[in-house]
Amino acid sequence: MLLRLVVFLILLFLIGPVVIIVLFSFHESQSLSFPFTGFSLRWYSELLSNDQLLGAIWFSFKVALLTSIITMVIGTAASLAWLRLERRGRTILELACIIPIALPALFLGVSLLVGFSQARIQLSIWTIVIAHTLLTVPMVMVAMRARLALFDPALEEAARDLGASTIGTFRRVTIPLMAPTLVATGILAFALSFDEFIVTSFVSGTETTLPMFIWSMMRRTVTPVINAVSGLALAITVGLLVVAWLIAVRRRSTANALANTDLD
Amino acid sequence: MQQRPLLVTILASPAVGYMLAFFFVPAGFLLVYSFWTVSGFRIQPDLSLDNYISSVTSPLFLSVTWNALLIGVVTATICVVLAVPVCYYLVYVAKSKMIFYAILLTWFSSYLVRIYAWRTLLGTNGLLNTLLIQAGIVDAPIDALLFSRFAVIIALTQIYLPFCILLVMSSFSEIKPDLIAASRDLGTSASGAFFKVIAPNAVNGLIGAFMLTFLLVAGDYVTPQMLGGTTGQTTGLLIADYFRKSGNWPLGAAQAFIMFAMSAGVYVVLVTTLRATGLAPKKLRNRAS
């Protein structure tokens, strides 16, 4: 019981602050503390009339979409290679791909800034996408590794023994088995990119992403409009995560069913 | 499946090439830069240790680095201590995965939003002060809640705890429940099973979780900047300013590598102490299984 209470308190500590921020984004008055006097959507409507903010959201959306597409292509290829590698090759591939998330974002940000300047690459949307992909590929590798460890190579062999071509095996067996994890990690990459701030602040050109916009607001003042932006950003991330989770659960069961009926 | 090394090479090359081009090569440039010098606002290629020497002899650098290390060690310790009961519960007790999903969700909820949350909670007219006054515990708002090391550590703990929990959980999951059941059958109490079976087996995982959390926390300069007030300057902020404001990239690069070396130093000290006191197994892979 004591354990349960401790876990509950820690969970409250993790979630509480975020819940309070969202609660006060619906507050009718300027005040950010109790008593809570009433609900209102005025801070959200103020948001929606801010063109700069909408521009930042659209820009972040484009960055996140490009990041997740590139991440999925690189991540899928790397996962397929991982499946076919021996233990030592796997370790090397993992080390090369996972190191970047074990370093402070600051280190990655300044390295990239120096790298781009040496290569005379102008800072633009692409430098942001490159930076974000550097953070999302390791995450995909970690997620895929956990899933692929359960992958049974015998399924591929069986398909080939039964006469399927390499491409046929890939299309009918490998991809359906990997798809749920792939799509879920693609969405996670989108969410990660949508929220990234520190590395972005080093490699962005003239255009502003949503977190950078929130940052500039936060530095100036404390107003419920920031709560509303936060609520919006959270809603987008949470929505994406739920979609990713639903896809992972649904597709995994269909993939398993497929694998069972086809090959058992 | 080893008959097609060409296919494997083609599949692995985008990821490896990407990491080479955008991580290893830029990090190499950064290292080269740290030996260059700046004279008259121009960056000169050089092979000088000036940046390193002037950094480690600068009182400002030493004090902000001490600040970063202190915040990092305290926060990472709190995170690991809090992660242990949560992971124990999640791995061995909980039947549903809801709590795990809730924790994942907080890990992905916006970084800046969480910093902002603590700012509004701990501010002079913030929620915590208002509640304390209404409850009659204090008469006047406590200003020191915000813009202090306390504020920085509490916020960093909330931000990095989910990540730490995920790391500790993976090390707990590797311990077979059979081992615990066996020790209980042999008459060990629940807490005895934890200290005699789980802790020794998980200790390397816990060290790993501590180190990764420490690295990320000590390198986080945005949270201390927003919530730390005068105590908020850390090495990270100093480095970021060299790159964004003063343009002295070589000095910033040198300090980034010093910070890196110091983190490695913390790891060595930690592992040596734990081994010397017998708390950690001598060999890295010494699992009873």
For the residues shown, what is the average pLDDT of chain A?
A: 83
How can the largest sheet of chain A be summarized?
none
Tally of strands of chain A:
0
Query: What fraction strand of chain A?
Result: under 5%
Strand content of chain B: under 5%
User: Averaged pLDDT of chain B, please?
Assistant: 83
What is the helix/strand order of chain B? HEEHHHHHHHHHHH
Characterization of the model:
The complex is a heterodimer of chains A (about 260) and B (about 290). By secondary structure, chain A is mainly alpha-helical. Helices cover about 80% and strands about 0% of the residues of chain A. Chain A contains 11 helices and no strands. Chain A has helices at about 1-25, 40-50, 50-85, 85-100, 105-120, 125-150, 155-160, 165-195, 200-205, 210-220, 225-264. In chain A, helix 3 packs across helix 10, helix 7 runs antiparallel to helix 8 (about 165-195) and helix 8 packs antiparallel against helix 11. The termini of chain A are far apart. With about 290 residues, chain B is an all-alpha fold. In chain B, about 75% of the residues lie in helices and about 0% in strands. Chain B has helices at about 5-35, 50-55, 60-95, 100-110, 110-120, 125-135, 150-175, 175-185, 190-220, 220-225, 235-245, 250-275; strands at about 35-40, 40-45. In chain B, strand 1 and strand 2 (about 40-45) form a beta hairpin. At the A-B interface, helix 1, helix 3, helix 4, helix 5 and helix 6 of A face helix 1, helix 3, helix 4, helix 5 and helix 6 of B.
